[in-house]
Structures are given as C-alpha cells and as structure tokens.
TrEMBL record:
Molecular function via GO: ATP binding; ATP hydrolysis activity
Highest taxon above the source species: Bacteria
Protein species of origin: Paenibacillus barcinonensis
PANTHER family for the chain: ABC TRANSPORTER ATP-BINDING PROTEIN (PTHR42788:SF2), TAURINE IMPORT ATP-BINDING PROTEIN-RELATED (PTHR42788)
Gene3D superfamilies reported for this sequence: P-loop containing nucleotide triphosphate hydrolases (3.40.50.300)
Key word ATP-binding present: yes
Keyword ATP-binding found: yes
Keywords, alphabetical: ATP-binding, Nucleotide-binding, Transport
All copies of domain ABC transporter, residue ranges: 24-266
Protein known as: ABC transporter ATP-binding protein
Coiled coil ranges: none
Family matches, as InterPro entries: AAA+_ATPase, ABC_transporter-like_ATP-bd, ABC_transporter-like_CS, ABC_transporter_ATP-bind, P-loop_NTPase
Length: 289
C-alpha cells in the first residue's frame, strides 16, 4: 500500500514536522459471517486510508463487501481482525465518529426540510450535553447556518416544505447537507446518486464537486460508476471479488476544480478503460469459481 505522507528527509535532518495522522485508516481488516454452518469470508485483510481533506472513492464488483466495510467504519460491526483508526486514534467498533449519507435520502417525512437538515446537529448537541453536562449549541445559530446552506444549494424558499414536495435530486441535496452539517470530520457516501436518472445524476455530481470544494471534508465514497469515481475523487481504490481486498489504488492526477469536460481527456479515458478492464477480469473470475 502506498503511503500518503511524504518520504522523510535524509539522516541528520532535524526539526521535521510530525506527519499528520489520516482522517481514516483501515488496517488489515478481516470479516466473515456464518451462513448455514459454514463461514462466508467478506473482507480479506483490507487496508486503506483517507487523508484529511481528501476525497477517496471505492469501486468494486457487486456484493464484494463495500457496504460491510462502511458498517465496520461506522462501528455497527466489529471485525474478526484488524483495526479502524481516525486521526490516529483506535475507534474499532465505536459509533458516532462519522457522518453518513445512504443510497436513499432517508428524510423524515414529518419534518420540514430545514428540520431534516438540523437533525444531525440536534443529535450531536444532545449527545454532547449528555456526556459532558454542557449546554447544547443554541438552536437559532444552527438554524441560521442551515438556512444559509439551503440557500447556497438552490433550496431557498423550501425551508418549510416537506420531503414529498421535493424532487429526488433536491431530496439528495438535503440529505447531503444533513451529513455535511454534522460535527464529524469524516463523511461516508454510499452510492448517493445511484437511484437518480442520468441527467439528474450528472447535475448532482457537478453540485457535489462545487460544495466539496468549498468545504473540503474528508470523504469516502462508494460507487459502481467508474467515471463518477474518477471525476470526483483524488484516489480510487479498486476492490476484488468477495472476500474483498484492495486490488489497485489509482491516483487521479487532474487539477481541481474539476469540470465535466475532463471526462473526454485522453488520460481520463485511459484510466477509465483500465479500471473497467480490472473489473471485467474480476467478473470473469467470479463466473469461473
């Protein structure tokens, strides 16, 4: 696995800054489930990192264990072996360290749009108050921030609307803002655009790029769309069939801010074809096994 930190200097150099711990580090994680008295391996020594402020994508065959990996990172499952570290601190099987955006918006239908956006900050404030007996953040401040963000993503005037009154793309923007405004540094995005039509998906990709450029949160993004992964991410991990391990790590060298025209660049197309070939080879292995 390639290291994200720069190589250390020559022997004898002094006063070097300590390397910054990654926002996320998955170290040699193994996971298996029991199925009808036999063991079903799902993750096989999987390791990856997400640096602070980095956008990392994961692609891999269907059913290879990508969602299981997110459950491990979120603390919903404990691996049989391996560790999860955030900012250099071991958080294996601990909850509450990530913000999460699922495939579907998962908005509460009885809450208004602004109330859905505020949900993550409300939960965090309640948890902080319970843990430390400190006063939660004043609601007017959180509400003002939520309204400001809603305006910046084209949802001004919809603050008091309900989820069923919004289009699919608009609901996804609300779900993303809810994750963005949570206090956790690391965001896990689980195929957030997979249910959208092609035109809406393209629009949401451009929107996400613009919002991420303003905020630069640490992001781990699951997608089956190779072009989407290369367009959005700084690095792409290509996973094997189940039990999943990292097959390849692809550096995406294109400058930011990214634009959709980049997808026609010969260097972009070369990487897209290469990843597609790796994925095809994995599918062939699965059929032969």
């Amino acid at each position: 696995m390639k290291q994200l930190q720069d190589k250390p200097g020559s022997v004898g150099e002094t006063n070097q800054a300590s390397p910054v711990a990654p926002a996320l580090e998955i170290v040699d994680v193994h996971v298996s489930f029991k199925e009808r008295r036999r063991k079903l391996p799902v993750l096989n020594g999987l390791s990856l990192t997400v640096a602070k402020g980095e956008f990392v994508a994961i692609v891999g065959p269907s059913g290879c264990g990508k969602s299981t990996l997110f459950h491990i990172i979120g603390g919903l499952l404990k691996p049989q072996a391996g560790e999860v570290l955030m900012n250099g601190i071991r958080v294996t099987a601990q909850r509450g360290h990530i913000s999460y955006m699922p495939q579907q918006p998962a908005l509460f239908p009885w809450r208004t749009i602004e109330e859905n956006v505020l949900l993550a900050s409300e939960v965090a404030s309640t948890a902080a108050f319970t843990a430390s007996n400190t006063q939660p953040a004043p609601r007017p401040e959180a509400l003002a921030e939520a309204r400001q963000w809603l305006g910046s993503v084209g949802l001004a005037g919809f603050e008091q609307a309900y989820p069923h009154q919004l289009s699919g793309g608009m609901q996804q923007r609300v779900a993303f803002l809810r994750a963005l405004l949570s206090p956790q540094e690391l965001m896990l995005l689980d195929e957030p655009f997979s249910a959208l039509d092609a035109l809406t998906r393209s629009d949401m990709q451009r929107w996400l790029l613009d919002i991420w450029e303003q905020n630069r949160r640490s992001v781990l993004f699951i997608t089956h769309n190779i072009e989407e992964a290369l367009l959005l991410a700084d690095r792409v991990y290509v996973l094997s069939n189940r039990p999943a391990a990292v097959l390849h790590e692809v550096q995406v060298p294109f400058d930011r801010p990214r634009r959709e025209e980049m997808t026609e660049d010969p260097a972009f197309l070369k990487r897209k074809r290469q990843i597609a070939q790796w994925m095809k080879e994995e599918q062939q292995k699965a059929r032969l096994s």
